[in-house]
Amino acid sequence: MATRKTIKSEQHYHAARDLEKLGDQAGAVQLYQKAVKTDPLNVHAWNRQMVLYRKSKSREEEIKLIETAISEYKKEAETHRQNWLKENETKVESSRELAKVLGMLEANGMPVNDDTALEKWRTRLYLLEYRLKNSRKKKAKIRQG
After folding, report:
1. Which positions ≥6 away from 97 have C-beta within 8 Å?
2. Is this prediction's pTM over 0.70?
3. Backbone angles phi, psi at 111, to 5 degrees
4. What is the distance between the alpha carbons of residues 38 and 9, in angstroms, rounded to a whole number?
5. Is 22 helix (H, G, I), strand (E, B) or coil?
6. What are the CA-CA distances from residue 77 to residues 27, 50, 57 (Å)?
7. Which of 78, 53, 79 is nearest to 67 (CA)?
8. What are phi and psi of 94, to 5 degrees?
9. pLDDT by 10-residue block (mean), the chain, 145 residues
């Protein structure tokens, strides 16, 4: 069941996509920001912001955005997970042994987090930081040489 915040976030996302198609990137970024502020689990809104920053060739801003996305997404996902565990304690306890056997629990007893969005963002962040570091080195060599 979709929550109010999820629905509102999706509305912001779709309005931002429309603005993006019309060429209003600044307006689109603002609405994407509203979408993720409303629901930090809105992966599509985070991804579209990253694409727009990539298009504007703003590596520093994209790095900050990815760091924020990872942090906010992880925080919201953990809150969501803890709330679900509280609401479904009997289900959790009755299926814990099966989950252990199937390798679905981490050592701390929490479910294994297999989130592809986070992995993609971490990879992109690593690549951006690597490229930014190397471009600074090249600029320094050019100045010296």
Report:
1. none
2. yes
3. -60, 145
4. 6
5. coil
6. 27, 20, 30
7. 53
8. -75, -20
9. 87 97 95 97 96 90 96 92 83 77 74 82 95 80 70
